[in-house]
Amino acid sequence: MAVDPKELRQLMSHFATGVTVVTARDEEGQNFGITANAFTSVSLDPPLVLVCIDKSAQCYSCFEETKTFAVNILSERQQDISRRFATKGIDKFEGLSWRAGASGVPLIDGAVGHVECRIVERYEGGDHTIYLAEVISGEARDGAPLLFFRSKYHRLGSAL
Predict the structure, then answer these.
(1) What pTM was estimated for this model as a whole?
(2) How far apart are CA 75 and CA 71, in angstroms?
(3) DSSP-derived secondary structure for 128-153
């Protein structure tokens, strides 16, 4: 028997994750994005990552149409940006400091890292779609990441 969705959410909240904002542009040049913590590296050769996007997300259809996206790895000082991109019905880019990456997708200023990706496969994953993507460029900066654990934001402690 499958676990109840509420119970699974509570269980999975005990797995600490980084916080990202996945951004892209649609065919008309409109920017869109969503907060996501379902992101991981898959392969070094070839360089592949995956991200899972909720089918009920306001910008879900844009991800179905795009070929490229960026994963912005948020810094511990970007909780407000995480909340902004998790909010429906607002202009998420209004007043936001960002620049266009090599593929034209938005890269959020102040993030500890970015990876620009080209979608190579889409897989059904229940109420999400799993996007497997090749990393076409990336950069990392000094700084501490924003973490999510037990449904709250956290900062990185000292290394063991």
Answers:
(1) 0.92
(2) 13
(3) EEEEEEEEEEEEE-SSPBEEEETTEE
